[in-house]
Amino acid sequence: MADVITSVRASAPLVHCLTNVVVSQFTANVLLAAGAAPAMVHSAEEAGALARVAGGVLVNLGTVTSVTAQAMRVAVKEAAAAGRPWVLDPVAVGPLPWRTELAHELLESAPPAVIRGNPSEILALDGGGTGGRGVDSTDAPVAALAAAGALARRYGCTVAVSGPEDVLTDGTRVVRVANGDPLLPLVTGTGCSLGALVAACTAVTDDALLAATAATGLLTVAGEIAASRSAGPGTFAVALIDALYELSPDQLAEALNLR
Amino acid sequence: MADVITSVRASAPLVHCLTNVVVSQFTANVLLAAGAAPAMVHSAEEAGALARVAGGVLVNLGTVTSVTAQAMRVAVKEAAAAGRPWVLDPVAVGPLPWRTELAHELLESAPPAVIRGNPSEILALDGGGTGGRGVDSTDAPVAALAAAGALARRYGCTVAVSGPEDVLTDGTRVVRVANGDPLLPLVTGTGCSLGALVAACTAVTDDALLAATAATGLLTVAGEIAASRSAGPGTFAVALIDALYELSPDQLAEALNLR
Amino acid sequence: MADVITSVRASAPLVHCLTNVVVSQFTANVLLAAGAAPAMVHSAEEAGALARVAGGVLVNLGTVTSVTAQAMRVAVKEAAAAGRPWVLDPVAVGPLPWRTELAHELLESAPPAVIRGNPSEILALDGGGTGGRGVDSTDAPVAALAAAGALARRYGCTVAVSGPEDVLTDGTRVVRVANGDPLLPLVTGTGCSLGALVAACTAVTDDALLAATAATGLLTVAGEIAASRSAGPGTFAVALIDALYELSPDQLAEALNLR
Fold first, then answer.
1. CB neighbourhood size of B40 (10 A)
2. What CA dihedral angle connects C158, C162, C168 and C174, to 10 degrees?
3. CB–CB of A213/A174 below 8 Å?
4. pLDDT tens across A134-174, in order?
5. How many CB atoms lie within 10 A of CB C164?
6. How distant is the Cα of C28 from the closest Cα of chain A, in angstroms?
């Protein structure tokens, strides 16, 4: 796990993020603090060229429009053609039919390395659940474990379900990460930037479950450090970037609480 | 007033924001700190579905394009059909004819609960004034009171005019909020996030003037607390989020300076 | 140099930014802290009207799409017609052919006051270099000096090449600014907001080389102050805004390290 983080810092993988406009700045700063190199290109004219040379590609559906959807289709196709891993963050899939269809279309066009979402999104993506409420989950991660396993086996990928305790599976193995802090969901973009960190980690290891677990551990342990220095979600968001920057692989390994 | 803030925290209303890309992150963090649940969906394909289930809808014209204008039309129509309140923030209406026409079209399609703007925007929306300079106002709030009252009566809504002293009216009653700090306009998105807070408050009370006054009080009192802990606009923006998070309804009631 | 900064604060020039969605918030806050008035309008329907009345116009290609490219074309044309200076930030020009062509089209339609980029972007814009890696430069500023001079003479503009030591030229004179801090490139948008500060400074002086040097000095000296108060890139970004706000023209003149 610590090796993955060390490799990201050593190789500074280019992470092509097709992500939403709400979290773009925070996501870029999270990637920079972790040692990766963010690049955000939203046009169908260019998304393919960047995906082909990126270490990893993130597709986050948060504020997708017909214009950026086209860029996502191109990026996923070209990433797959060039053997680059891509990560799907199916924001608000379930209650919103248009993006739910888009998520399935992208998954069918090329299997992702990792799907990262909240429990409601993972349940909905598997065809079940009642759907969350926008970006909020109305289900616990463990309730989505069966759905996560089914998705993982269907697409040959890893599924990371975020929550107070994160649950990750590649369809066979299951890992739980019991780190984090209640302030994390009070800052917009922490979940979305986890997707970006996962994409960064998939650039340095072929084991997608390891990549997703390392990214999850990094963000949630940094969250614990940040919380100890914060007066509220404002100072927490700032301290989180500092913590990601300074956290050593050894500190991470020691603080990680895997189950 | 304190009850409105308490209700927002207790019910965490979903606030659908069709807002500009400059302030999206800050707006989401303001809503989260205040206890609301932000959701930002920009496509015509989805804006209606979210508006129907949102507690309140914000339409902010800051960086509107032909693509997002279409999403705004759908969101306003569907919010009205489902009986959901919507709030208009007519950013830079006046000097820019295209969005000025769009603002009138949206207002005619369904009356909003609240219009929140700076004095120049409110004057321009009422058909008068010389127009501001982009997002800046060149007029004082009190100079826009007659225009605010006329708009309020025309659409049966509340109009909130922001400035050093905020002036709010439902066409009959007038409230002035004399809280705030000169650092507030030095952080981008404080006015825009006030519009989002107003939308959050309209989700928990049918009295739109009360909702707008509570939101204005919350943001401006939090601004005073933040200013007392800041060295400049950078630290102020961070402290503002913390202050919104920690401010108790009792503290708010005590610090409010209504006239 | 100090006079330029004083003039920006005294006249608060309106800076129309057609910039990327990742850095919009940070750019606006940088401009506000420096005393300028940011305005961001992205639609072809409105970009021209704002460009005609702006003190300076920034065109940053970061997340350009076919929709915003059209707004850029209109803004550059109308800025030129009204005699307003415009600044090009050719983000990721080189490896991405579509925006490279767009950059050349914009430059041919009307000469800019300033082109600000990293060495790889400047080399690529001049038709040479191997191209950088997304927003990263793989070349040193001094390596791009010949290309910068050629571009400056071709368009009759100033070219500012950012890096550990910034190099600026109008095709005849060359200035080097040896201020800054390694934390600057670890915060997304510091380079992009330098482009915006350059646009603000071109609004108050006809000497584009002086404007670009003043803006570069302001940001890099503020970066040094911020670094002395920071624990990492999170606190640094916040302290940078405070430093821009409080830095006096005299302090700037004293700390500047020109070569």
1. 28
2. -150
3. no
4. 556 667 788 899 999 999 999 999 999 999 999 999 999 99
5. 13
6. 13
